[in-house]
User: Which sequence fits this backbone?
């Protein structure tokens, strides 16, 4: 029997948010728990959201508010148990592929490297030096840059 990943928290360092934590299931970001910004002092100060896209259908993500972090965590965990019972490894893999694709594309743009679709020849070079074509991009990203979008990964 395989053991399921545990939920872990990583600090949300966004200075535009009131603070909080991203919630991960293994390497997949599945939600957030944090202080709510701009709410009256008599309203619940904590909020949570549970779900991930791609990998969940519209309407499957849930959210809530709470008076304390502990209550927000409990609300998240209850919602997570319900959502997890409807997810398969394929749902998580969809999210990982999207994460890696977007991180790869962003790095190509950051390094001002053209995509094969931007060249008349239909060929280009990846930042790793490998030649890529429109039909080989997806295979290349998954084979050579798996995990590139994991914010705690140092792979290139």
Assistant:
């Amino acid at each position: 029997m395989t053991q399921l990943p545990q939920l872990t928290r990583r600090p949300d360092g966004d200075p535009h948010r009131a603070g909080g934590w991203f919630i991960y299931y293994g390497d997949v970001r599945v939600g957030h728990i944090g202080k709510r910004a701009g709410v009256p002092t008599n309203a619940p100060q904590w909020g949570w959201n549970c779900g991930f896209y791609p990998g969940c259908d519209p309407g499957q993500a849930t959210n809530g508010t709470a008076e304390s972090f502990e209550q927000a965590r409990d609300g998240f965990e209850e919602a997570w148990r319900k959502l997890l019972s409807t997810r398969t490894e394929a749902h998580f893999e969809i999210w990982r592929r999207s994460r890696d694709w977007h991180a790869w594309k962003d790095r190509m743009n950051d390094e001002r490297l053209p995509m094969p679709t931007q060249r008349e020849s239909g060929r280009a070079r990846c930042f790793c030096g490998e030649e890529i074509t429109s039909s080989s991009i997806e295979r290349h990203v998954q084979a050579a840059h798996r995990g590139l979008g994991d914010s705690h990964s140092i792979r290139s």
Summary: The beta strands are 7-11, 20-25, 28-35, 46-50, 62-66, 123-125, 131-133. Residues 152-156 have pLDDT under 50 and may be disordered. The longest strand covers residues 28-35.
